[in-house]
Amino acid sequence: MDQEKHFDGEKVEKFDIKIKSKPKDGVILQLHHTVRDSHGEYRRIRFSTAVFDDAQEKLACADNAGNLFIIDFCDLKFWKLANRGLCTALHFIPNKLDGLVVATAEQFSLNFIDVETGSKSHMLIGHTSHVKHISFSKSKMNNLLTASQAEAILWELKNYTKYFTLNTYLGAQIQQIMFTPAGDYLVACFQNNTVQIWKHDTMKSVKQIIPSELKHMKNIAFTMNGRAMAMAGLVPTLILFSMDTWKVLKSIDLTKYNIRGVQQVAFIPQLFDGGSNKILAMLSSDCILHLLDLEALKIIYTICPESSSIKKIVVSQTGKFFLCILQLGEVNIYNTSLVLDMVKSAILGPETKEVSTSSTITYKCNPQQHSFNKLAVEQKMRACMDSSRLRRILMQYGEYPDKFRSVIWKSLLNTPRNKVAYSALVDKGIHPAYKNIEKQFTIHSSITLKNLKRLLSCLANWCPLFGVMKFLPAFVFPFVKVLQKDPLLLFECVATVLMNHCQLWFEYAPFPPISVLAMIENILAEHDPQLLDHFCQFGVTSQSYALKVLETAFSEVLTCSEWLILWDHILSNEPAFILMVVVSYNIVQKNALRKLKSHDQLENFFHLQNPIDKKTFLKKAYILLNETSEDIHPRRFFNSFVSLEKGDCYQQFTGYPKATICLKLAKNEREKATSANKCSLRELTTRSQEKIINERLKNDFDRDDSDKECREKHFKKHRRKSCVHLQSKGDCKNNTKEELINSILFPPELRMHCKRNAESKCSRRQKETPRSSMKRCSDKKRILEKEVEKLVKRNSDISD
């Protein structure tokens, strides 16, 4: 890194980095800091310390001039923070976004820095010499342990005060001190070859270890599950100690590996080792890094760079990366999986060669053979994947590795990979409901848009329900972003999720899932009634604090990495777990929610990404899953997990009321048909009936006009007999209209009977008084109007 031109001033500016995808020696990135002095000559500033942040895949490195660099492996960026003096120790703050603790030589202070902006939020002062060790407790997140050679201080970060101080004396100064991975114990290694263990809760000493065969102890390390501890020093002996039984597990003589002493040890976690790590990295006293397989008791790999010897090693917490700080000040960053792949390829490959003069191992293998061996290993790994083992791995590491996430999800959901059935759905083309989906969502990537359209169309072709559910595009979109490289796996994963984890969602489609929302409200009422009262106070229903979160699959309220981790847990558990996650999210965010004092603020809260402690969030979900009363537990109402069937077609999706969705589809067709004419269905029906009546009236009166004399006699006769017929030709028209309406309402045989009755009634009507005739005529008119209204209503109901 030549940074002479770029880092003037306090402004944080980011620059691109390029990582080697397939390095021969496993080094994906090499760091060096070169500057030009006042004489125009270049000189290199040495890096002194570094630390990984596995949660965000970031690396912080500091050099001897006080320069602090941040490397982001996700975004492939690096930048420099403000110089705060010589840095002696670094540590990322767990469960806090972009937080870094920097121990500086000035006042021996501890500075809390934001790695994105470089701003300092707090500073702790209390040490009397340089801080060399920083450790956080996993059991008590607010406990910070810092130590120099002279003293160790336990800080309470809620109030930023000292909680406990450990002072040492000359000759028994601190070599190393840390919390165990579980946070239950505090372990210190002293210069007098003693290991002291304290209980974290009470700070009482529980064990003291003085290994007789291990002199000049330099370093200790713990497995990821904290059940074993490795101790090493400047004598060729390695001791493995059990933290469960407080007994020695193994004592390994290192002379048979030509190792005369060890400066530093660190376990390298591997995928699927359950936290009981089997590979130990040892930096020998001659500055060579050895990887020791503790099961086979064999050195599987040795690293000795040609340019310089190794000064210090740093391993990330999950073992994804490790680095070597060289004596000349460079930093070599390794991808652990690539290094181990090289080891496996060398073991399986036909040719291996060891160069004894430089204590390094060089491997030669055919690239085709390498890819074949890698594929064989992956296939064997997939065959060994069972759900129970995957769940144990998930509980140990908290998430599945990105590299194998799609394979693991496929195994958990037991997708059949029905290529013929999927092709049949794709061949039906883009569904009309999603033809213009780009108008509803702003998607910049044409590839993502194409994959989203294809997925939604396949779902709608598989089941008509998915063509009318408005929330579906937002629900499936994050799955498209993650699995779009394999469209078949994407469809089958989403379809399986809709069948199992979305049970009862479509019970009242297209209306909200009342049963699901009632379950969530009951769980919240049992575990946090105060929060439910707060929602009720401002009129916020479960459609806001539950349905909005479910319909977006939590993508609106979580970051990308948080979303992936959450769905690792959802897919690894029973279908009812997703409802527990909704309640957990509300309870964990309770403090923020109770500060909102209006309906609109509470509504908007569930459409924003709010900071959340993902470990607390998931832990609470598991507590709800295990401690919710059986009478309101969702598993009472949910069916067991059912995977898609393997074959030439997928089974039908039946989790919705067919009558409701048919009416919904009919309504959509009706809206399309009447889009040009804005009249209502009732008006259209009335107009059609009037058109029929008027056409028949016109035909009848055309026939009457052919005989003018008959018509005149007809009117004269009626004028003399009754004044009712003085109301003009409209009454005659109304009588004809009555007959035509009857012809529409009644069958032909009934019309003949009505005609005879009409003739008898006509003779009686002539004898009645004009007033009674007018009354009967108005009554008849009302009856006709009611009949027409019934007819219109009947047609309207059928159409709806």
UniProtKB/TrEMBL annotation:
This is TBC1 domain family member 31. Molecular adapter which is involved in cilium biogenesis. Part of a functional complex including OFD1 a centriolar protein involved in cilium assembly. Could regulate the cAMP-dependent phosphorylation of OFD1, and its subsequent ubiquitination by PJA2 which ultimately leads to its proteasomal degradation. GO terms for molecular function: molecular adaptor activity. Residues 399-574 form the Rab-GAP TBC domain. It comes from Parnassius mnemosyne (clouded apollo). The keyword Nucleotidyltransferase does not apply. SMART domains: WD40. Keywords: Cell projection, Cilium biogenesis/degradation, Coiled coil, Cytoplasm, Cytoskeleton, Repeat, WD repeat.
